[in-house]
Amino acid sequence: MADVAFIGLGIMGVGMADNLAKAGRKLVVWTRDAAKARAFADAHPGAVEVAPTAAHAVRTAPLTYCMLSTLEASTAVFDAPDGVLAAVGPGKCVVDCATLTPERMAEMAAAVRAKGGKFLEAPVSGSKKPAADGQLIFLTAGDADLLEAARPDLDAMGKATHYYGADVGAGSRMKLCVNMTMGVQIAALAEGIALCEASGLSGDAFVEVLKQGAMSSPLIAGKGAAMVGRQYAPQFPLEHAQKDLRFAVAAGDKLGLALPVAAASNELFKRARAAGNGGDDCCAVVEAARK
Amino acid sequence: MADVAFIGLGIMGVGMADNLAKAGRKLVVWTRDAAKARAFADAHPGAVEVAPTAAHAVRTAPLTYCMLSTLEASTAVFDAPDGVLAAVGPGKCVVDCATLTPERMAEMAAAVRAKGGKFLEAPVSGSKKPAADGQLIFLTAGDADLLEAARPDLDAMGKATHYYGADVGAGSRMKLCVNMTMGVQIAALAEGIALCEASGLSGDAFVEVLKQGAMSSPLIAGKGAAMVGRQYAPQFPLEHAQKDLRFAVAAGDKLGLALPVAAASNELFKRARAAGNGGDDCCAVVEAARK
Amino acid sequence: MADVAFIGLGIMGVGMADNLAKAGRKLVVWTRDAAKARAFADAHPGAVEVAPTAAHAVRTAPLTYCMLSTLEASTAVFDAPDGVLAAVGPGKCVVDCATLTPERMAEMAAAVRAKGGKFLEAPVSGSKKPAADGQLIFLTAGDADLLEAARPDLDAMGKATHYYGADVGAGSRMKLCVNMTMGVQIAALAEGIALCEASGLSGDAFVEVLKQGAMSSPLIAGKGAAMVGRQYAPQFPLEHAQKDLRFAVAAGDKLGLALPVAAASNELFKRARAAGNGGDDCCAVVEAARK
Amino acid sequence: MADVAFIGLGIMGVGMADNLAKAGRKLVVWTRDAAKARAFADAHPGAVEVAPTAAHAVRTAPLTYCMLSTLEASTAVFDAPDGVLAAVGPGKCVVDCATLTPERMAEMAAAVRAKGGKFLEAPVSGSKKPAADGQLIFLTAGDADLLEAARPDLDAMGKATHYYGADVGAGSRMKLCVNMTMGVQIAALAEGIALCEASGLSGDAFVEVLKQGAMSSPLIAGKGAAMVGRQYAPQFPLEHAQKDLRFAVAAGDKLGLALPVAAASNELFKRARAAGNGGDDCCAVVEAARK
Known about the structure:
Chains A, B, C, D: Residues 3-165 form the 6-phosphogluconate dehydrogenase NADP-binding domain. By secondary structure, the first copy, chain A, is an alpha/beta fold.
């Protein structure tokens, strides 16, 4: 029997699962693209087996990590007849690391608990590189003893784990706040570069100034250089960044909180998505800002 | 005769002039509030004298630094009968460190040059603390030999000096790009904290997560803590941050560049100004975001 | 047996049902507040009976009109064990006049059709007074023969009926476009009045000018006077206007269409809602614009 | 000697001057394009003469109407050595019908009065067709006796004249409020049509619904049909509509009033301008909304 099941080997999941394997864990994996799962197993001989279905993976291990990138993908895999929930029974542990809505996380928790399982939401702050480097930040809520059981794994995949209580949804709410702020910061950078270029100044010079001042951050340095150089290979796809802005604005709506700057940013990201940059890195929003 | 004249001892100017004095420069100073000028001179016995007018200060030194915080204040002091321009003659050097419009900087340069003087625009990136610590970043354009003459002073007041060519206005344009991006970033942080608090989560916990991730920056750490703790003592007054957003959006207008996120941020800052937070630190924009 | 069932006697429904009664139709009604249903029946002796449940009403008549004001209320009444769907069987006709999402309308149509019933979506353009005056505009899609059967009723309740094909959802999509435009127009008027008043000019004088020019419309005249006079008795509640803006922006999101002005308007309406104006007329958004 | 001088025969001015001629007034005209002035005179034999300069026109008549479409054009013609102000002397009357900033109008009034002249600001609500049809609305402020002297002319050119007191600037402020609201309404219509089309519905059907409801107005009917049919021949050029939005947002800024919806609309108009629609009719903003 495997130590853990890992569902979802996308941009983020593959790095996370790799770090679990490196930490000595035996994995059973499943992802929609069977070839990807096969390749991952081949790269970790003896440590990883491929399950034919998500349900089979969940059944094969006491503890399952899910990392599916959209609400649609997550729901499809969780609720399918041969999906995650179908395999949950008493004592089964599920840790979901996706960025979904707080409401959906709470629903999943209730469904798992109704079948005697335990649930921890653990959305991550960080994108492709932090996932690969084991530098993610986990924003968790749910069953406290599951958190303790999972902690060595979380430590293998990340550099910090925060716990916001037993009430599932709190982690996702925090994640939305974080990603909303990130989306707006990226829009801020994009409009700054666009104005700079339109003014006849060098975008590189602009990013250089930002890197010397109070705004200096890995985000500014990395996304700034990528925007100026028009390098849009996806670290965190634009359509996912826009999804998080949408979720955050909707969360504000439910709470009666106006978020005019996030809403304007959301529209800018939508424009970029409409122009075909949805699958590019989120920094491609600069293309919408440029015109 | 003094080495340099320094016009404007506001939040920023006092730190800058202090660093010039510490570097051994003899100063003649003028600022609108005579008591402030007197106090500054008293704090630097033997190194600083107070001029009765701006013109007198300019006449008393070969090189003048101006640091007046608004377009109105700058214009009033520059154009007054006993102001800066009145005292400019052949060879007189003027370095203006304020954040004004590119157009106004070009006008001032033309006026100084018409009277035989030299002009360098040198708006700064950085606020109260970097000014006090000699950690400003100068974004300069104008007479290259004046830049070389002023460089030891700029090095005493800052940690980096960028030069964008002889065409005065380029430095202010870069400054506007920088401050626009900063204004939007602060709005991003404010809305993030407001959403976090409205969600029943701790603003401190939110800032903690940001500090561990890709967005980590001195701005996030400093302004984040101030917003959560509602500490609004002015480092960079909100009304000035809003002024820069306004100038940046207007610059985009002239260039035919839409800046929807900056425009939305500008309106949020205006709301904070309208609510009475204009003289507070710019991070008080979180008050407008909270409701 | 009654001619028609009418579910939902809110601000709009009461006027609509009244017009059906005036046209000589025998009604069976149900609404959540039994006292309201009772009062309505008492006002129409011999023509209206009160059903104990929505299901009972639906069973009692061949054709049912639903007019429930929110997605939540509509869903609750439609799906309840003693709700609308429970009573649908072969040949039963349902006309839903609420403003819901296109997706929800399609779901309801599918559910009704699956049980052998017929479904017409017929959201209305118009608010309290047009409902009372039989001047609504129906934006319909669905079963064409049900439309023909319902036409005399629609004519009694409205002044125009548009049909957008068999594909349920098209009527709701048109409705969202209409209400989004209305929401933004109301925001436009609110900001105009706010600027006018802040400029020291009379809001009444402003509305007077609008009424003489190309923008002159019943909306401008009615909402303009109400905003200036701060008369917020609900014709079309602000929280519903905001809901429609939210749905429209979300529809744009799905279609990849940025709607920055609607999104900004949505946030302004949210701010008014947060300030406690959710139950007031939508023109109370001027309160949020004023400060 | 002519009865009146008319300066500026653009899209609006030509219709206004034509109505003065039809009312029996002898005109002396000047406009930047001499061929246009010539053509206008040729079309009104015996009633119109062409002046070689604006100053000459002003000198030739006791009363001058100015209708120059931008702040730049107005300033250039007003302040030029052979411009309007140069020819003002005691008793000379100037009525300015352009949409400028309140501040500029007040400056012009002060300059005219300083030379013994009288000044009335009289910006108009209405575009090309109302100008041609004598259906403009004048929003005036300034010298009350000049208003009475000009009233027959204003009645020949318009259908209503409002007076907001002696304080010049009030008429322009009212005009800004009106045009801001119009700009946002046009943006509202544009986004509505864009969403409608993206939803697979007919834009014509959408405009039809609007024309039957509370939003029905000449603006909706005219601009709606033009947007759907992509007919952008300029009635009121987009770049002027955007200029008015910019002025209005700036006026709000001075007053400490946030105008988030107008600001978002301004950015949408800017995008259209950037895409090359500046000289088209303002309804071409729908092109920016469509993508």
